[in-house]
Amino acid sequence: MKREGADSARGDGEDEKDSSRGAERRGISRLALPAALVLALVAACGFGLLWWRERSDQQLRTSAEDAATRMVTDLATYSHEDFEANIARVKSSATPEFSDNYTEVAESLRELVVNGKGESTAEIAHAAVESISDEEAVVLVFLDQHILNVAVPDGRQDVSRMVVTLQRHDGEWKLQDAQTV
Q1: Where are the transmembrane segments (predicted)?
Q2: How far apart are CA 130 and CA 161, in angstroms?
Q3: Per-residue pLDDT tens for 18-62?
Q4: Domain formed by 42-180, architecture
Q5: Where are the domains of the chain?
Q6: Region for 120 from its dihedrals, namely left if φ exceeds 0, alpha if ψ lies in -120 to 50, beta otherwise
Q7: CA 156, CA 148: separation in Å to the nearest integer?
Q8: Which letter does DSSP use for residue 135 in this model?
C-alpha cells in the first residue's frame, strides 16, 4: 500500500505540474493575442507611413513634371502678333533671376521675331524628373517645336532636349533655369 500512496503522491505532483503548465500556457496565450495585435498595429502604421511618403514623393514628382512641361511650352511658344503676352507668361512662372535673364534675351530677339513674323508652337513629347527634393527639381524635357517665319514660310520642325531646373517658392514650382542639350 505504501507503493500506492507513493504512486498517488507522485501522481498528485504531476497533476500539479500539469495544471501549473496549463496555467502558464493560458497566461502566455492571454498575452500572445494582445502582443500580436500591438505588433500588427505597429506594422500597419509603418506600412502606412511608407505608403504615405511614397505617395507624397510621387505627387511632388508629378507636380514638378507638370510644371516643367507647362513652362517649357510657354518658353517655346510665341507669336510676333503678341510677343509681350509670351514674355509676361514666361515671367509669371519664373524666379526673379530667370525672369531678369529672360527679359534681356527676349528683348534682344523682339525685333527679329516681330519683323520676321515669327511664330512657334511647342509640344512636349516627353518629360521626366531626373532629381527632386522639397525645394528643387531637375526635369528632362523632350520638345517638338513647329516654327514659321518669313525665311521658312512652310515651317520647320525642331526637336530639342532641355534640362529644366525648378525651385519651389511658396509651394509653387518656379522656372530657375532651362538649358538646351
Answers
A1: 31-52
A2: 13
A3: 555 655 666 666 777 777 777 777 777 777 766 666 667 889 999
A4: Roll (3.10)
A5: 42-180
A6: beta
A7: 7
A8: S
